[in-house]
Design goal:
The complex is a heterodimer.
Chain A lengths: L4 H19 L7 H5 L2 H4 L17 H13 L6 H6 L4 H12 L20 H16 L1
Helix pairs in contact in A: 1-7, 4-6
Chain B lengths: L1 H22 L10 E5 L3 H13 L4 E5 L4 E3 L4 H6 L8 E3 L1 H5 L4 E3 L3 E5 L4 E4 L4 E3 L2 E4 L3 E3 L18 H11 L6 E6 L9 H15 L5 E6 L8 H11 L4 E4 L4 E5 L4 E4 L2 E4 L2 E4 L3 E3 L1 H5 L14 E2 L4 E2 L5 E3 L12 H19 L9 E9 L5 E11 L4 E4 L5 E2 L5 H19 L1
Parallel strand pairs in B: 1-2, 1-9, 2-5, 9-21, 11-12, 11-17, 12-13
Antiparallel strand pairs in B: 3-4, 6-7, 7-8, 10-18, 14-15, 15-16, 19-20, 22-23, 23-24, 23-25
Helix pairs in contact in B: 2-9, 2-10
The chains are: A mainly alpha, B alpha/beta.
């Protein structure tokens, strides 16, 4: 594959910037949003008592439940009102964060979650590697 | 070609890191950034925990004179005897052992925002890169009122037990007067919840006289449907609700509460004065510029003061207009923690933070209601605004909600303190 120096530079710089940000503790996408569930559902979704544990549930399960709740709000369900507070894209980020135990790609934006495997730093370097080899 | 680009790339990345270092607000790059938190309630404990959880390279020091926090949440159930003090006493051990928060058992007395240090009562000087103030509330003085004699019980601890003693002192058929201050105050539904539980307790102990509620506000501030229904049906003949009634002075030697409508005799009383930001906030010049400002003016993206850089204010002392409660304080603390972690990574705060409020109020000894709302940042106004369709109260108090209340409280306690 023929190299496109300009393109390579831009992508690689972005990847390195992400890696640098991750090394300094920049948050993975969805982390702050998901943390707003923890008051009732426990830190990182590990509820200690009486409420649904979100950690370990699948992305589709959490996403599906929340989308359904906000689509048909029942007046006696507190969670339906909570679900109504978030956009579909925000719900996707929250669901992905809990499903992966927070191992989502480091990102400065709340609307640009990408892959979700490995540790924060590991994922970032995996993404960087894949993008580099693709461009090469 | 490839190696040439890689070399350029490495140079570029070096430049990025160097630029980051130069623009970094930190001291030497080798030193860990220092966050100092003043106040160990729900706001302060949560921000201390989450900064460490999200970036253990940041040093966090929590300055708090008390050995543990006594929660206002569920404290009305200690008043009735349903719970004991141990059920609402939250320790700081986990913040230290699990998260490595440095806890300083001392009282912060002054802030030097230029030298970036906090002075304590014991004479220490504690330096910071970022300071988070979470001092809770302070009270207006009410002429003739000594809260050591007539408790507000709006900060839990000895005041909670003093309130319990007031309740036990009501003679059969006697009157208990409680007052509600002008909003905004800590925990919007809290005073109405307390009125219900006072009435429930008197009824269950066959001492029912009157619970006379003096509300400085023109109407019930939160869960209007729930509390109007409770006052007019469940507790009809026991609770007397008087809106737009302000306590002007107290003459407890004569068991008299004076109001803008005239004096009221009482056998026992609970006077909750009007509230304002914790003492340090005004002393540090963090109040808004409006005359009579009571709360810290902050940017809701990071809770940084709009007046003094590198000082953040969260929880009841902040003035964004969001309700003042332990749950909300926890929510704001995470937005602040995230902004601090990003700051030390050289990044701007999340541009679209969300917070939410959810709380349960016991209405009788077996039922509870709930209240909830979700807030989102509105970029046009720079304010946190309620998201449409999210503000709601439970249609009716139920035993199921009463059970959920303990699940909510236990998780909120754990998310904030352990």
């Amino acid at each position: 594959m023929k190299a496109h120096p300009k393109h390579l530079g831009r992508v690689a710089v972005l990847a390195l910037a992400l890696a640098a940000a991750a090394a300094h503790g920049a948050p993975p996408a969805g982390r702050l949003l998901a943390s707003q569930c923890a008051q009732c559902h426990g830190t990182n979704g590990q509820a200690v008592a009486g409420m649904e544990k979100l950690a370990g549930e699948s992305e589709s399960e959490i996403y599906g439940e929340l989308i359904k709740m906000k689509a048909s709000i029942k007046p006696d369900e507190i969670m339906h009102r909570q679900a109504a507070g978030y956009s579909d894209a925000q719900i996707r980020l929250i669901a992905r964060y809990f499903a992966t135990g927070g191992r989502t790609t480091a990102s400065t934006s709340t609307t640009s979650a990408t892959t979700s495997v490995g540790s924060t730093a590991g994922t970032t370097s995996t993404t960087a590697t894949r993008r580099k080899s693709h461009d090469d | 070609m490839f190696s040439h680009n890689r070399r350029k790339l490495l140079q570029a990345s070096g430049a990025i890191l160097a630029a980051g270092a130069m623009s970094s607000p930190l001291r030497a790059q080798t030193a860990a950034p220092r966050v100092v938190v003043i106040g160990g309630g729900f706001a302060g404990a949560t921000v201390a925990k989450y900064v460490r959880l999200w970036n253990p390279k940041i040093q966090v020091t929590l300055i708090e004179p008390n050995p543990n926090h006594v929660s206002c949440i569920l404290s009305n159930l200690v008043m009735t005897g349903a719970l004991g003090m141990t059920d609402i006493t939250l320790r700081y051990d986990n913040l230290r052992t699990k998260y490595g928060v440095n806890i300083v058992a001392d009282r912060a007395v002054a802030i030097d925002p230029v030298g970036r240090k906090v002075s304590t009562q014991n004479g220490s000087q504690i330096a910071y890169d970022k300071l988070v103030l979470a001092p809770g509330i302070d009270f207006d003085a009410v002429p003739g009122l000594d809260s050591a004699v007539l408790p507000h019980a709006w900060q839990a601890g000895p005041q909670t037990l003093a309130l319990k003693a007031q309740l036990q002192a009501v003679p059969s058929g006697g009157s208990f007067v409680m007052s509600i201050p002008l909003a905004p105050y800590r925990c919007p539904p809290g005073p109405y919840e307390r009125a219900c539980l006072l009435a429930d307790s008197l009824l269950r102990n066959r001492r029912a006289g009157k619970v006379i509620v003096l509300d400085a506000n023109p109407d019930v501030v939160a869960e209007a449907h729930t509390f109007h229904t409770a006052f007019s049906t469940t507790y009809a003949g026991v609770i007397e609700y008087h809106p737009s009634t302000e306590v002007t002075s107290v003459d407890w030697a004569n068991k008299t509460i004076n109001t803008n409508w005239g004096p009221i005799r009482a056998d026992a009383a609970n006077i909750i004065p009007r509230q304002k930001a914790g003492k340090l906030v005004a002393a540090a010049g963090l109040l808004g510029s409006a005359p009579g400002a009571r709360w810290a003016s902050v940017n809701p993206l990071s809770y940084e003061s709009t007046l003094v850089p590198n000082v953040h204010v969260i929880g009841d002392s902040q003035g964004t207009g969001q309700p003042k409660s332990g749950h909300m304080a926890n929510a704001q603390a995470k937005v602040c923690a995230d902004a601090l972690v990003r700051y030390f990574a050289g990044e701007a705060p999340d541009p679209a933070p969300m917070t939410n409020s959810a709380c349960y109020s016991p209405i009788t000894s077996k039922t509870a209601s709930w209240l909830t709302v979700v807030f989102g940042y509105d970029a046009a106004s720079g304010l946190m605004k309620p998201v449409p369709n999210t503000l709601a109260e439970a249609p009716t108090p139920t035993s199921g909600h009463y059970e959920d209340m303990f699940g909510w409280a236990k998780n909120l306690f754990a998310d904030s303190f352990s």
